[in-house]
Structure formats: structure tokens, C-alpha cells
Amino acid sequence: MNWDRIEGNWKQITGNVKAQWGKLTDDDLAQINGKREILEGKLQERYGYAKDQVKTEVDAWSKNVRMN
């Protein structure tokens, strides 16, 4: 799914995000609000991922995400 669609449907996709990255809180998801850069930053913060690892994970996730 392209990022514009993810951003536009963020509220419907948050369950999928939490399933993928369970350390993200509801407050994190509200702050992210569909913004890829903020999601990547939160993943680095919560999981200690390197920037390139975050990009790879988010790319893979976004290709396979489905609306709930």
C-alpha cells in the first residue's frame, strides 16, 4: 500500500501497526498520525533500531499492510 493511503487510513491501520510493533503505545500511534518519518523515529526510540533497519522494516510492512 502506498504511504498516502496508509496516512489517509491511519486510524483503521493502527491495529496492524500494533500487531507489527507491539512496543508502540496508543499515545505513540496518535503522535505518528500516519506520518512515516515520525513512525520511523518512534521505532528507533522504542526498539533501538538503526536508521537503515527502520527504513527496511517500514518498507516491508507497508508493502504487505492490509486494512482491518
CATH domain topology: Protein Yjbj, Chain: A
Q: How many domain regions?
A: 1
Spatial separation of the terminal alpha carbons: 13 Å
CATH superfamily: YjbJ
Strand tally, please? 0
**Number of DSSP helices?**
5
Q: What's the shape?
A: globular
CATH class: Mainly Alpha
Output the radius of gyration: 11 Å
Helix/strand order? HHHHH
Report what the structure shows:
- The chain is mostly helical and 68 residues long.
- The protein has one domain (3-64): YjbJ (Protein Yjbj, Chain: A).
- Helices cover 74% and strands 0% of the residues.
- It has five helices and no strands.
- Helix 3 (26-32) runs antiparallel to helix 4 (36-47).
Could you outline the blueprint of secondary structure elements for this entry?
Elements: H1 3-8, H2 10-20, H3 26-32, H4 36-47, H5 51-64
Helix pairs in contact: 3-4, 4-5
Key descriptive features of the protein:
mainly alpha, 68 residues, single chain, Protein Yjbj, Chain: A
What can be said about this structure in brief?
The chain has five helices and no strands. It has 68 residues and is mainly α.
